[in-house]
Amino acid sequence: MHAQHLLDGQRGGRGKLGSGSDTINLPAGVYSLSIPGNGDNANLTGDLDISAGRSVFLSGIEAFVVGANARMTLVRGEWFADRTRGMPYRENAYVTADEALLGQAFNESKARLAYTAAISETPGFGALVSMAVTFDRTTRRLTVTWQARTQFGDTPVTVTEV
Question: ∠ at Cα 123 (95, 63), nearest 5°?
């Protein structure tokens, strides 16, 4: 199971209705929830609140692409459940200066390795079909264009800007 908090400005806190979203990518199967709530329905005590009309469940290739993109935007050291997960964007307690992608001259091979690792860690990954990493020095934007072969089939060509 891979879970990631994507809350507006909050790190490792509890979500509040309307404050952001949580993404949970699970392979097909039956799952038992084992953390009981305290009878509340406000996402305050560790229970799982799924509200009608606000829940989107993905599977197959679409879920793979969303999961891979989430891995490419997660900064290593910021996810409370596993600080070793994520992209080595900047130097911190979990990223050495040599590993960091930002704060130094752009290194295409280092960026390519980091993005390839993020995509290949996504459940269902089979092989990387194509990968292009381009850096625009004027706008300081990095564009990653990729396609992967998964257990669900080939993903569409996906472009991620960082």
Answer: 105
Print pLDDT tens along the chain (162 aa): 333 333 333 334 444 444 555 666 666 667 776 666 666 666 566 656 666 566 677 889 999 999 999 999 999 998 888 888 889 999 999 999 999 998 888 999 999 999 999 999 999 999 999 999 999 999 989 999 999 999 999 999 999 888
The torsion angles phi and psi of 118, rounded to 5 degrees, stand at -60, -45
CB 59 within 8 A of CB 34: no
Contact, 160 vs 152, CB < 8 A? no
Total residue count of the chain as it appears in this document: 162
DSSP code per residue over 31-55 = --------S-SSS-SS-----TTT-
What residues contact 83, with CB distance under 8 A and at least 6 apart? Answer: 76, 77, 93, 94
The closest of 146, 152, 145, 144 to 126, measured between CA atoms, is: 152
Beta bridge partners of 144: 133, 160
